[in-house]
Specification:
Elements: H1 2-22, H2 46-61, H3 66-89, H4 94-115, H5 119-142, H6 148-165, H7 167-185, H8 194-211
Helix pairs in contact: 1-2, 1-3, 2-3, 2-8, 3-4, 3-8, 4-5, 4-6, 5-6, 6-7, 6-8, 7-8
Length: 212
């Protein structure tokens, strides 16, 4: 319990720094849809979300493996960043997606080298490839309704989720992400960004899968 509280306190500081960076709006680009940028986003939800996420991940994952905690805490910060950008300009930033993918890949390779356990790495790679292929086909079928950013994001999420809690978690997070998106679509007039829904679903699903 104390460790969870410490994680929440550190997460609060990380969330504050992330919020201050988001307030600069330096992620916006000239080609972003100006009509949707008529108001300055507050991003205040980042302040409680990051510590809550860190507390949740530490509470659920530390019971099984601290390596999973070390994988997901930094990854969750990147996911919060790309989600905030996507909610503002309807674009998942390539830099953030690359960071999520590279961090996950480097961590799984390092874990396999240190522990001599290659199964998490193999499961992560296969899950990433399979999920990316399915989402890419959906991208082609939806005529840009599903962006390439979502394809890249699901690859990183699938790799981290499968390596941490197995294949069923990937299916679970995908289903939960779609349900969250449908729920938001029923209450919002703007087009719903799928990326943040998938990111939130991944954090919830991997914690539930490991803990319960």
């Amino acid at each position: 319990m104390i460790i969870t509280l410490v994680a929440a306190l550190i997460g609060a500081l990380v969330g504050l720094l992330l919020w201050l960076r988001l307030r600069t709006l330096d992620y916006r680009r000239p080609y972003d849809d100006i009509d949707e940028l008529d108001s300055r986003p507050r991003h205040r939800w980042v302040l409680p979300l990051v510590p809550a996420t860190w507390a949740w991940l530490t509470f659920t994952l530390s019971w099984t493996s601290w390596r999973a905690v070390l994988l997901w805490l930094p990854l969750s910060v990147v996911l919060t960043w790309v989600s905030a950008v996507d909610l503002d300009v309807r674009r998942l930033p390539n830099l953030g997606l690359a960071g999520a993918g590279l961090w996950t890949a480097a961590f799984l390779v390092a874990e396999a080298a240190v522990t001599d356990r290659t199964r998490p790495l193999v499961e992560g790679v296969v899950a990433a490839a399979a999920s990316a292929m399915i989402f890419f086909l959906l991208h082609l079928a939806s005529r840009d309704g599903l962006g390439l950013g979502d394809v890249k994001l699901i690859a990183a999420l699938a790799a981290a989720s499968a390596a941490t809690a197995g294949w069923p978690t990937v299916a679970g997070l995908t289903l939960l992400g779609c349900l969250i998106a449908l729920g938001m679509a029923a209450t919002h007039r703007r087009d719903i960004a799928l990326g943040p829904c998938l990111a939130l679903a991944a954090v919830i699903a991997v914690g539930v899968a490991v803990k319960f």
